[in-house]
């Protein structure tokens, strides 16, 4: 009823939650929910404001279950004593509910009492009450999420036995409630349908407010009182109904902010642990779910975050970045760049490194360049992730080394060469040999013997003929002196013998002239004009 109009029929009053009737073993309450956890459920729709309610709940991140009557979706041939009419645009409302994350469930077709009105007419009619609505909502229900609530909560073993052998045995229920079905305990509790129909009664008797009606806020405050007393559970509400001063949709908008401020959280009724245990298992990526696929998660396990119905693995920051914001149930890890000196880090500062690149080590949160050992020393312990190199002196015989022992040289100083890890003095080629190749970093001087008839001095690079004069350590070849002819003397002058003089042979010829001059000076005085003696 909207604004006092009577276009929407009201059902008979729901019995109090404490009513006694025969329940099957599958009748379910919300007592397995954690403290301060509520599951909102809405019966008898869809109504004129159901789409508005659906979108409001989505904006508050609340998912609900809507137990609908098939006669509000399509015309029925069943007896319709409650004169339930089709709600214009009902199919679009169902699609809206699903898009907003809510679950559509079966509340029979005509909302007749299954125990007193339907069961006496036979099991066929009992079955039809569920099958017609089942056909109306099948396209909107996720696989395996079939929930059923009996009108007025009226259910019995006879109803159960009449349904359990049929295709409708796929439904889980009946789903009962913990809060919202009491019409005679105002202001400690309330039922929204009773508030809007003038049937809300006070504790101990008498009509609430003298007329049995309660406004949106008055009825909402009574719901709050019951919620705070019970502390958890499934909440019963009816979205199609209202009167001039009260409306269920408006009451929900009044209740939700107060409940959130008081620390309450909300789950969908199929997330009640007792119900979840009866449902098909969730996809392994989900902690809890609203369906069996990986895109129907409700909550995620640790290390995952929720996005568009799916649980994605929390991202890990790559090398050179750190998590500036940790992964949460609804947001992935946020990464930011490390200080350039770090390989990995815990923050952006140069002293927030957690590891370093090759060639550096970690000290007091910062990365320091590994030291290089000075010439004549070696790394006795290498640079590690957390410690600098340690240097020690080489053996004195080494120019550079890999260890302290004489046999661990890696390079030598001048005049020495490396052999078998040791530094050896470079050899000098002995006399009568010549140097073939000079001493190098890793090999000794190479020497070769002079050819026959040739000789050399120590350290020579070439040989010269025997009897010739060496031209020094690098002495060259010689022709061995004057060849042919003899010495001649004329007018006191030495005459070079005929023949060829060259190289050191020229030197030998000059030496001969010197000897002749000396001999002339030592000759006895006589007649220089040839006087005979």
Please tell me about this protein's structure.
By secondary structure, this protein is an alpha+beta fold. 20% of the residues lie in helices and 20% in strands. It is built from ten helices and 29 strands. The N terminus and C terminus are likely disordered.
Shape descriptor: rod-shaped
Main sheet overview? 5 strands, parallel
Distance between the termini: 180 Å
Task: Give the number of DSSP strands.
Answer: 29
Radius of gyration: 56 Å
Strand content: 15-25%
Summarize this, please?
Helix content is 20%, strand content 20%. The chain has helices at 50-59, 90-99, 114-118, 123-137, 157-163, 192-197, 216-230, 248-261, 273-276, 504-522; strands at residues 37-45, 65-68, 103-106, 233-238, 242-243, 246-247, 265-266, 288-289, 297-299, 304-307, 310-313, 321-325, 334-337, 344-345, 353-355, 360-363, 366-369, 377-381, 390-393, 400-401, 409-411, 416-419, 422-425, 433-437, 446-449, 454-455, 464-465, 488-490, 493-495.
List the SSEs and their pairings.
Elements lengths: L36 E9 L4 H10 L5 E4 L21 H10 L3 E4 L7 H5 L4 H15 L19 H7 L28 H6 L18 H15 L2 E6 L3 E2 L2 E2 H14 L3 E2 L6 H4 L11 E2 L7 E3 L4 E4 L2 E4 L7 E5 L8 E4 L6 E2 L7 E3 L4 E4 L2 E4 L7 E5 L8 E4 L6 E2 L7 E3 L4 E4 L2 E4 L7 E5 L8 E4 L4 E2 L8 E2 L22 E3 L2 E3 L8 H19 L11
Parallel strand pairs: 1-2, 1-4, 1-7, 2-3
Antiparallel strand pairs: 5-6, 8-9, 10-11, 12-13, 14-15, 16-17, 18-19, 20-21, 22-23, 24-25, 26-27, 28-29
Helix pairs in contact: 1-2, 7-8
